[in-house]
From TrEMBL:
NCBIfam families per the UniProt record, alphabetical: PRK06105.1
SUPFAM superfamilies (alphabetical): PLP-dependent transferases (SSF53383)
Pfam families: Aminotran_3
Coiled coil: none
Molecular-function GO terms, alphabetical: adenosylmethionine-8-amino-7-oxononanoate transaminase activity; pyridoxal phosphate binding
Protein name as annotated: Aminotransferase class III-fold pyridoxal phosphate-dependent enzyme
InterPro entries given in the database record: Aminotrans_3, Aminotrans_3_PPA_site, PyrdxlP-dep_Trfase, PyrdxlP-dep_Trfase_major, PyrdxlP-dep_Trfase_small
């Protein structure tokens, strides 16, 4: 229960801070969890309570909440050169090094990188890049963006328009020209008697029809998360991207992989696209890029888009776009270290991606075990991202009435036991840090199971 004395942290948080994506009645009732620090995958609140954060913060603190190597990289860079921009023909040495590194770890032998402060800005920037280069190439109408319902691409006006969530209607979004196709969630969207392959074929046909109706010359890109994250952890069927991509290629529409969550190891692969066996035309990265130690996003353009953008920019002598902190030297130094820590191994330790691969079978087994419950309709995921979806009726997949706020109750019951996980729709999401031990994995599943049992006893 919250300490509701006027000078409590909870009251002070509520008095002066505006919350985003927060259920205000829940906060009024339960108070804000005010955090002071962390250790490994645990965070600690002002009352000294410890929580296992099964969401890695917001999918991003993949190396945990106290990584000495990452902290040292930040300190060293603050000592050397604490801030600079990437405008007017200047940029920091760390920015040069990071771009080289990102191309090296990307699927591209050559290409170029542009930096932002967030994933939202990276998606916005990508769209502006495409609008700009298409206009330069004499196709100013080639501006529409295809994404999917339930896909999440950010909150700025353009990236929110890409996001396929109904809540954006309160802002009068999406903007015109942002088209949301069917979510590739076979369990929810597949029709009675339809095989998974037939489902994929139906989505491919929908794409073809959309291109025919809208006109390929009006469509600038198809942007997709390999595994949808904030949509509720939804892995597309394995054949989806390999069937979608040839259609896009035939019509000259780039396929952009939003790897903000999937990139750098979350699926057990360097990129979510790699897990699905496709090469996108560009990659959007953020979150894991700095292991959450610095706000940073990046657009990694493959060779073709990179050349076309370069030509368009040369034609007017510049690409008129950039953020004050684009390519911030401290962010770049942290990202260089994070890539080493996750992908290569640093300071005598094996790469964290090895641990992702090691613990994924236990993670999958834990999800499968929860799927046995009468009120779990589906357990799904890939690598170290997973979700269990609550249902009132397993056979018909009938959801619980929204008024019961089942997933919020489960998440609250988890918090009460010292486990942070996130409600998303009727699902509860798990996205633990890459450093998890076997014991921590057991702790996570046993606390979640207790919470599920408590809530299902109340509502079922
Ligand atoms: N794309 C994806 C796939 C994301 O998951 C997110 C953030 N959850 C974003 C873009 C937006 O990133 P940011 O919150 O850093 O703006």
């Amino acid at each position: 229960m919250p300490d509701d004395s006027p000078n409590s942290w909870e009251a002070r948080a509520a008095a002066n801070s505006f919350y985003g994506f927060t259920d205000l009645p829940t906060i009024a009732q339960r108070g804000t969890v005010v955090l002071t620090g962390g250790e490994g995958p645990y965070v600690t609140d002002v009352h000294g309570r410890r929580y296992l954060d099964a969401n890695s913060g917001l999918w991003n603190m993949v190396a945990g909440f106290d990584h000495p190597g990452l902290t040292q990289a930040a300190k060293d860079q603050y000592d050397r050169f604490p801030g600079y921009h990437a405008f007017f023909g200047r940029m920091s040495d760390q920015t040069v090094l990071l771009s080289e590194k990102l191309i090296e770890v990307s699927p591209y032998s050559e290409g170029r990188v542009f930096y932002t402060n967030s994933g939202s800005e990276a998606n916005d920037t990508l769209v502006k890049m495409l609008w700009f280069l298409n206009a330069h190439e004499g196709k100013p109408e080639k501006r529409k963006i295809l994404t999917r319902k339930n896909g999440y691409h950010g909150v700025t006006a353009v990236s929110a328009s890409m996001t396929g969530k109904p809540y954006n209607s309160v802002f009068g979004l999406p903007l015109p020209g942002f088209i949301h196709l069917t979510c590739p969630h076979y369990w929810r969207e597949g029709q009675e008697g339809e095989s998974e392959e037939a489902f994929v074929d139906r989505l491919v046909a929908e794409l073809e029809e959309t291109i025919a109706t809208e006109g390929a010359d009006t469509i600038a890109a198809f942007v997709a998360e390999p595994v949808m994250g904030a949509g509720g952890v939804i892995p597309a069927p394995m054949s989806y991207f390999n069937k979608i991509q040839p259609v896009l290629q035939k019509h000259g529409i780039p396929l952009i992989s939003d790897e903000v969550i999937c990139g750098f190891g979350r699926t057990g692969h360097a990129w979510g696209a790699e897990a699905y066996g496709f090469t996108p035309d560009a990659i959007i990265s953020s979150k894991n890029l700095t292991a959450g130690f610095f706000p940073m996003g990046a657009i990694i353009l493959g060779p073709e888009l990179s050349d076309r953008l370069q030509k368009a920019s040369e034609s007017i002598e510049e690409f008129p776009h950039g953020f004050t902190a684009s390519g911030h030297p401290v962010g770049c130094a942290i990202a260089l270290k994070a890539i080493e820590v996750i992908m290569e191994g640093a300071d005598g330790n094996p790469p964290l991606i090895d641990n992702v691969r090691r613990i994924t079978p236990a993670f999958e087994a834990g999800l499968k075990r929860l799927a046995q419950k009468d009120n779990i309709g589906e357990a799904r995921g890939m690598g170290l991202m997973g979700a269990v979806e609550a249902v009132q009726d397993k056979a018909t997949k009938l959801p619980f009435p929204g008024s019961l706020s089942v997933s919020e109750r489960i998440a609250n019951a988890c918090t009460d036991q010292g486990l942070i996980c996130r409600p998303l729709g009727q699902a509860v999401v798990l996205c633990p840090p890459f450093i998890m031990t076997d014991d921590q994995m057991d702790e996570m599943f046993s606390k979640l199971e207790t919470a599920l049992d408590l809530v299902f006893d109340e509502v079922a």
